[in-house]
């Protein structure tokens, strides 16, 4: 069974503008169709793999408000950015949640083809018992790319 969704959308904006939005934690709240992602905790621009950036989140079915600490796993300026969400439990030591997000950008004519991939294949069963995985339908990725496109173009 495939535990991955992927969607592609053509943006009128150049890759540099799309990547600038994705590498700015302050704008992540505009990259999805709901209000799950809130403001950035860490506001420094993302500039390398291994960096951790945190954002405030809110999900009723995940217990309400919480902070998600995202470890950047892929970083190729103007081409690829990806992260592995996780948290630092009491006692320390960041722990991955078992799912990841990745954006791949490809120049296309006067714009950019943006592919968003969400993979939940490494999510532990204990977490799946609390939160259904994936927590949204495949169309969520289409809606997320549409929201990001509106932000980048707007």
Please provide a written account of the structure.
The protein is α+β, with helices and mostly antiparallel strands and 154 residues long. The chain has one domain: Alpha-D-Glucose-1,6-Bisphosphate, Chain A, domain 4 (2-Layer Sandwich). 19% of the residues lie in helices and 40% in strands. It contains three helices and eight strands; from the N terminus they run βαβββββββαα. Strands 1, 2, 3, 4, 5, 6, 7 and 8 form an eight-stranded antiparallel beta sheet that branches. The N and C termini lie far apart (38 Å).
Radius of gyration: 15 Å
Major pleated sheet: 8 strands, antiparallel
Instruction: State the CATH class.
Output: Alpha Beta
Number of domains: 1
Integer average pLDDT: 94
State the shape. Answer: globular
DSSP helix count?
3
- Please report the distance between the alpha carbons of the first and last residues: 38 Å
**Beta content:** 35-45%
CATH superfamily: START domain
Features of this protein?
eight-stranded antiparallel β-sheet; Polyketide cyclase / dehydrase and lipid transport; 154 residues; 40% strand; alpha+beta; Polyketide_cyclase/dehydratase; START-like_dom_sf; 3 helices; Alpha-D-Glucose-1,6-Bisphosphate, Chain A, domain 4
